[in-house]
Amino acid sequence: PGLCATRAEAEEYYESHQEQFSSPAAVNMGAIVVRAEGIARNAIERIEDGQEFENAARQFTIDPEGRYCGGMLGWIATASLPPELAAAFEEMEVGELSEPVAVGPLWYVLKLFGRRAARTTPFAEVAEDIRRELTVSKQAAALTEWITEARERADIEILL
């Protein structure tokens, strides 16, 4: 067998490792988490009156990480969100602020900063990278095998 990976080997790897080349639907989100709907509505009023979302998050949220990050939670897979939050984001446009959303005993004010659809990177975009990685793996395996065989054939004598 050759030490360079073929296109067919790369295609086989791609097909059997789809999860490596897929990214789920996600939202770039901000959240203000509070204990009461009235507090959530107060935060929304402040933002609508001109206060920056990040400053309102630092002022109102009970989530320590959210307070530190100004409510910015970054990209989160939609499927990993509680159903109530995922449903709220389905109704929102980028840049929009939500109405208060109840999740258990907590209330959320959400802001949608971006949306990304689920995507699988086409084989054509990753074919050369896959071939290169498979080639490195084949060459490393061949070298390991050669070293093992060389050690087995070697006649080593230790003189003290």
Features:
two-stranded antiparallel sheet, four-stranded antiparallel β-sheet, 6 helices, single chain, elongated
Mean pLDDT: 96
Poorly predicted regions: none
- Roughly what percent helix? 40-55%
Largest sheet: 4 strands, antiparallel
Question: Which quaternary structure do these chains form?
Answer: single chain
E-strand count: 6
Could you characterize the architecture of this molecule?
α1 crosses α6 and α2 (37-48) packs antiparallel against α3 (53-60). The chain has helices spanning 7-16, 37-48, 53-60, 64-68, 83-90, 123-153; strands at 22-23, 26-34, 72-77, 101-103, 106-116, 119-120. It is α+β, with helices and mostly antiparallel strands. The strands form two sheets. Strands 3-2-5-4 form a four-stranded antiparallel sheet, sandwiched between helices. Strands 1-6 form a two-stranded antiparallel ribbon. The mean pLDDT is 96. Helices cover 46% and strands 21% of the residues.
Task: Note the topology.
Blueprint: H1 7-16, E1 22-23, E2 26-34, H2 37-48, H3 53-60, H4 64-68, E3 72-77, H5 83-90, E4 101-103, E5 106-116, E6 119-120, H6 123-153
Antiparallel strand pairs: 1-6, 2-3, 2-5, 4-5
Give a brief description.
Helices cover 46% and strands 21% of the residues. With 160 residues, it is α+β, with helices and mostly antiparallel strands. Strand 4 (101-103) and strand 5 form a beta hairpin.
